[in-house]
Amino acid sequence: MTTASTTPRRAKKAKAARRPRSIIKNLDACLQCGYCKDVCPVYKEAPWESASPRGKVYQLKQLYRKSLSDYFLKAFGREVELNQEFVDRLFWCTSCGMCEVDCHVNIPFPELWEEVKAWAVESGIGPLDPHKLFLERVREQGNPYGDPREKRGDWAKGLKLSKDPEVIFFVGCTESYRMTEIALATAKVLTYAGVKFDILGGEEFCCTSPLLRTGQRGETEGAARRTRAQMERSGAKVMVTACAGCYVTTKRDHVKEIGPNPFKLMHISEFVEQLIKDGRLKLTGRVDRVVTYHDPCHLGRHGKVYDAPRNVIRAIPGVRLVEMPHSRERSWCCGAGAGFKAAFKDSAESIAADRVREAMGTGAEEIITACPFCTLNLNAGAKKAGLKIKTRDLLQLVLESIEASVRVDGAAGKGDKVQPARAG
Fold first, then answer.
1. How does pLDDT run across 217-254, given as a tens digit for each residue?
2. Beta strands in 21-80 (DSSP E)
3. Which residues have CB under 8 Å from 253's CB, separation 6+?
4. What is the maximum alpha-carbon separation in the chain?
5. Which end of the chain is more exposed for a tag (fewer CB within 10 A), N or C?
6. Domain limits at 41?
7. Do 96 and 181 belong together in one domain?
8. d(C-alpha 210, C-alpha 336), whole Å
């Protein structure tokens, strides 16, 4: 088991910056009941009270009480301090939001943790070292992986993109550089449905979700303004994304920074559901398989999108959807969120393995999800635990149905649409 402090180090301290009122107002509301602790995935992984949601709130309360005595502390030449041990525990969190679901006094925990992380960063004692790389790379190359900005659209070479798009497909960093098979499946489905779409390619910039979830806020306003300017230049009125993190960041955090989006934002599961309802996408190819659906934390608890992915799955002939005991609002986390995997890889994959075991208990042959991080980490968790079940993205399942219909019908016209068409 990997813990939040994997190697000994000197307890670094820093004078605490002024606490935002949004942190202070939630502290006294906590009843210290412990319901949040029982559902926390990282507490299950390393059951220390100081790493549980309740324990973190308790520590914050103690810091606040000390700050109320600032006048006397200053008289003796002392200041309230944050230490590295507390910050380590603070980042021992996936921001999954289950603590909020079970909170009896409705503390908005994911928002609270982001506020506290930002406070730690402002105080000069956060984030953790792997998270600092996110900021450096986003500033240099526009993505947290540090891959060349100009290669962001390389996955789409050969696609027929529209110069007068109805939709912009915002691909996101992970699908542009690491999970390109999901981006390609999405593009093929849009092409088959006759959707005129374009991508931003090298002009696309990180939505800043990895930065926000690790307390690094300075880049978000600029990213939001850049994306809006690109949307305006494109002429498209709709933006779709297949990344749950990009979806909730654009929907919520960009709006907090600069106001309502002037375009319609849809997760690809919502858009495909609408295409099916409108008759623009007809899924006739059979996929005889039992699948279970994993709700990504960002798309589900944070974005409130539960039905669209399930409706798309049920629209595919031959597929039988079975639910896990923990689903929808109570879905277990995959373990990859909020920079947790970057800092605590082994524990992130152990959390994923638990989720995969639950999926296998349903009798499903395959796990379907709608987030590239979930796809990546659930497969890593399965491999680590020696479990023989694969996780795929929803759009890969949709494409499988389309390609099955092309093979059965011998419809050359549709077959041409499925394959990437040469531009020009």
1. 999 999 999 999 999 999 999 999 999 999 999 999 99
2. none
3. 208, 209, 212, 220, 224
4. 84
5. C
6. 13-128
7. no
8. 11
Structure tokens at 299: 């798309």
* 6 is a domain residue: no
The H or E element that residue 169 is part of is: strand 167-170
For residue 334, CA distances in Å to 170, 198, 348, 356 come to 23, 31, 8, 9
Output the pTM of the full model. Answer: 0.90
| Identity of the residue numbered 393 | D
Is it the case that residue 70 has pLDDT exceeding 60? no
Distance CA 371, CA 393 (A): 7
Query: Which contiguous run of DSSP H or E holds residue 321?
Result: strand 319-322
The closest alpha carbon to 118, from 50, 33, 20, 242, belongs to: 20
Q: What is the total residue count of the chain? A: 424
CATH number at residue 414: 3.40.50.1860
Q: What is the per-residue pLDDT for 59?
A: 87
Q: 267 and 308: one domain? A: no
Q: Which residues, in sequence order, are bridge partners of residue 369?
A: 393
144 and 113 in a common domain:
no
User: Residue 375 is encoded by which pair of tokens?
Assistant: 């796809």
- Domain presence at residue 423: no
Count structural domains, the chain: 3
**DSSP designation for 126:** -
Closest residue by Cα to residue 275 from 311, 235, 317: 311
Q: Calculate helix-pair angle for 307-314, 268-277, nearest 10 degrees.
A: 50
